[in-house]
Amino acid sequence: MDFLAWSAVGQKCIEATLLTLLPSLDAAPQQLHEAMHYAVLQGGKRVRPLLAFAAGELTQANPATVAVAASAVEMIHAYSLVHDDLPCMDDDVLRRGKPTCHVQYDEPTALLVGDALQSLAFQVLAENKLHVDQSVQLKMVRLLAAASGSRGMAGGQAIDLESVGEVLNLEQLEFMHSHKTGAIIRAACLLGLYCGQTVTPATHASVNEFGRLIGLAFQVVDDVLDAEASTDTLGKTAGKDLEQGKPTYVSAMGLDKSKTLALQLREEAMEILTEFGDRARRLRELADFIVLRKF
Amino acid sequence: MDFLAWSAVGQKCIEATLLTLLPSLDAAPQQLHEAMHYAVLQGGKRVRPLLAFAAGELTQANPATVAVAASAVEMIHAYSLVHDDLPCMDDDVLRRGKPTCHVQYDEPTALLVGDALQSLAFQVLAENKLHVDQSVQLKMVRLLAAASGSRGMAGGQAIDLESVGEVLNLEQLEFMHSHKTGAIIRAACLLGLYCGQTVTPATHASVNEFGRLIGLAFQVVDDVLDAEASTDTLGKTAGKDLEQGKPTYVSAMGLDKSKTLALQLREEAMEILTEFGDRARRLRELADFIVLRKF
Fold first, then answer.
1. Do A150 and B119 touch (CB under 8 A)?
2. Which of A105, A106, A115 is closest to A83 using CA atoms?
3. pLDDT at residue B44 in the model
4. CB B68 within 8 A of CB B76
5. Residues 165..204 of A with a Cβ closer than 8 Å to B: which?
6. Residues of B in contact with A86 (CB under 8 A)
């Protein structure tokens, strides 16, 4: 199966799994549940679930199990987008070409959608059998919770807010992004990995480092795309970073050097995968996809 | 030890445990961490942790273990207050006699404080040893996640928002409150219970029902206090329910009948505890405290 076919299968699988894990639209409170579906089932590239599937191949994890763990990751991602788009945060009205959650519904509903999706992510990790060893499953809860919290994604968002209008050096930029987007990307890889056979500390470290590099590359490419693309092709409001005075790789080092950095991060990520041989095929393809998607 | 002394010990214990579980103020992002401390360490009655300690006595749970599980519950409660106080929700400026989180800091910080506290609650449940049997610990994660989400607390909040200006009958009021405040109160009791010896389905059901009754009583008393008390003695803006057109027990059945209902719920809750004999002493005292606190 080529990469496009593989990722299409993964995307379909994750959509189907999310649909079974989300609350029924018949259950009260119906509007909240409808808005949760709206926030989660808008398509998107599903990069994090795909990373989980790909990392799961290193430990021969059952894809159906990975799909559940990856759905939890995707729920955290979806909640963060809903909250980031709120008027008091980025105040964005478009997401994947459609009205953001608080525009489609209202602000209180969007706030609760994010809150409830976060709860659901942990409920999903705790109530489905993801591993014969329940200590491994508790570890998955811990990994995702740590990646979501104040020393992970939410913390990165706080650093981002503090940084508006500031000039950040590359180290500070990397610190911010390794929290804001990197933590969940690393968690996606690790959760997929842990769904399979026993994970050695060395493998954990390698996959974590792969996730770190690819997460950073993802952000650099995002900054490049935001600077280059039009609102039409991006599906969200383009050029907002510059307009809002947010520090980006492009503002810190220019377009060309940003592209070079992305390619360099890809090289480093590929080197880490060498030890895994053929089993890392999908991770390699994803690294390429993430870095080369629109260059 | 009389009830006052016992609850003072419990409150001190939970404050100390929360302090060790919250991120250090030295760690980045510092302002977010400071605001998380502000939101969690403002005192309060700590009713939910006390319920956990009291329920833990039924299964001879180690209080130090219960303190960790109860801290997770209290973090969920604290996050919900921070988000409920936001301008797009209840728009409240006072909480326990002090500025609410978004007034003391700002709205984006308060949003992230809530988000990060929710993550931390699940991290705490997953990374501390709460039971020799890890399937029991996963069950605790599941219980708290379900109680927090769209079919628990967040869902209750959504129903509450939809109900502003509506006339609810008693059944609808109970449905709303059993989600909005009841779910977390039940979870507090059950998490304390599960920290100890094996819980039979019958004991689970009894404690869950006790939590349901006492959670409802708690809300009825809250409505009575809101209608009767002044802002000064309440420590939060009084009379807001009426002003905002929110349905309450007082608006649905009047002050006197509300008080009678609270006492009746207390009676039912006490009956359930009969089977547990002396071990339920603290649960009985808490039921009294909750219902009779200001009448």
1. yes
2. A115
3. 87
4. no
5. 175
6. 111
Give percent above pLDDT 70 in chain A. Answer: 94
Q: How many residues does chain B have?
A: 295
User: Residue A232: pLDDT above 70?
Assistant: no
**Is B29 in Cβ contact with A109 (below 8 Å)?**
no
Closest Cβ–Cβ partner in B118, B126, B159 for A138: B126
Other C-beta atoms lying within 10 Å of the C-beta of residue A13 = 19
Q: How many CB pairs under 8 A join A and B?
A: 164
Select the more confidently predicted residue: B295 or B194.
B194
The pLDDT of residue A236 is 57
Residue B62: CA count within 13 A, CB half-sphere? 7
Q: What is the mean pLDDT of residues B111-118?
A: 98
> Is B232 a residue whose pLDDT tops 60?
no
Identity at A170, one-letter amino acid code: L
In angstroms, the CA B219 to CA B180 distance is 10
- CATH T-level assignment (fold) for domain A3-199+276-289: Farnesyl Diphosphate Synthase (1.10.600)
Asked if residue A234 has pLDDT above 60, the reply is no
Global ipTM: 0.95
Helices (H), A128-229: 134-148, 153-163, 170-177, 183-194, 201-228
Query: What is the spatial distance between Cα A116 and Cα A280, in angstroms, rounded to a whole number?
Result: 34
pLDDT beyond 90 at A230? no
CA distances from A37 to A21, A40, A50, B147, B226 (A): 10, 5, 20, 20, 36
At residue B94, φ and ψ (nearest 5 deg) are -125, 140
pLDDT at position A246, please? Answer: 78
DSSP reduced 3-state for A68: helix
Is this model's pTM higher than 0.90 or not?
A: yes
Q: Closest by alpha carbon to B119, among A197, A79, A54, A199? A: A79
Q: Which helix (H) or strand (E) holds B107?
A: helix B107-127
Rounded CA gap, A132 and A184, in Å?
Answer: 24
As a residue count, chain A comes to 295
Under 8 Å CB-to-CB from A158, ≥6 apart: which residues? A150, B29, B31, B32, B108, B109, B112
H helices then E strands: how many in chain A?
Answer: 15, 2
Q: Which of A31, A83, A138 sits opposite B115 (nearest CB)?
A: A83
Which of B29, B125, B127 is nearest residue A159 as measured by Cβ atoms?
B29
Measuring CA to CA, which residue among B115, B205, B193 is closest to residue A153? B115
Residue among B79, B82, B115, B171 with most chain A CBs within 10 A, to mutate: B115
Structurally, at CATH architecture level, domain B3-290 sits in Orthogonal Bundle (1.10)
The predicted structure's pLDDT at residue A166 = 83
- The answer to whether the CB of B27 falls within 8 A of the CB of B33 is yes
At B4-16, the pLDDT tens digits run 999 999 999 999 9
**pLDDT tens-place string over residues A71-121:** 999 999 999 999 999 999 999 999 989 999 999 999 999 999 999 999 999
Of residues A220, A211, A226, the one with CA closest to residue A260: A220
